[in-house]
Structures are given as C-alpha cells and as structure tokens.
Specification:
The protein is of the alpha+beta class. It is built from two helices and five strands. The protein is globular, with a radius of gyration of 12 Å.
C-alpha cells in the first residue's frame, strides 16, 4: 500500500512567498541556490537539497513545517519532508 502524507492539515492555500526573489537565507548572506521551495505553512522560500545550503530542509527541521511546493516556474508539485512522499 502506498504511503500517504499525514501533514496536509499544515497547508495554507494561497500562502504568499515571504521572499519572492529567492531563498530567504541565501539572499541575506549573498549566497546562491539551485532550485527554490515554498513552505506551505508560512511562505518561507528556501533552497533545495541540490543547493549547498539546503535551506528548505533546514527550515523543516527547525519549524516542523513538513510540506513544500516547488517555487520554480512551470513546476507544480508538493513534497512532505516528514512522510517522504509527494503530496
């Protein structure tokens, strides 16, 4: 049986990106990223795990906000860090 996400109650539909120009922490430090992810609970924008800083994953561990969606143009998917499944 396929594993399901148990954190969908954290999703805030229509949540605005806190830093629509890029990864919040990378922008503050002047660093770079590969791809961006948006936290579906608070709008935090963090860089993906292919980026050296992995701020989206770090945000999940610090906040417990489990679900992100791609913040890349043309991509439409969500991921639950806690359950390790596509939402």
């Amino acid at each position: 049986m396929a594993k399901a996400c148990t954190h969908q109650n954290q999703i805030v539909e229509g949540i605005e990106a806190r830093t629509p120009n890029g990864c919040e922490e990378c922008l503050a430090s002047g660093d770079r990223w590969v791809h961006l992810r948006k936290c579906m609970a608070c709008g935090h924008i963090g860089c993906c795990d292919s980026s050296k800083n992995k701020h989206a994953t770090k945000h999940f561990h610090a906040s417990g906000h489990a679900i992100v969606e791609s913040f890349e143009p043309g991509e439409d998917w969500r991921w639950c860090f806690a359950d390790q499944v596509v939402v």
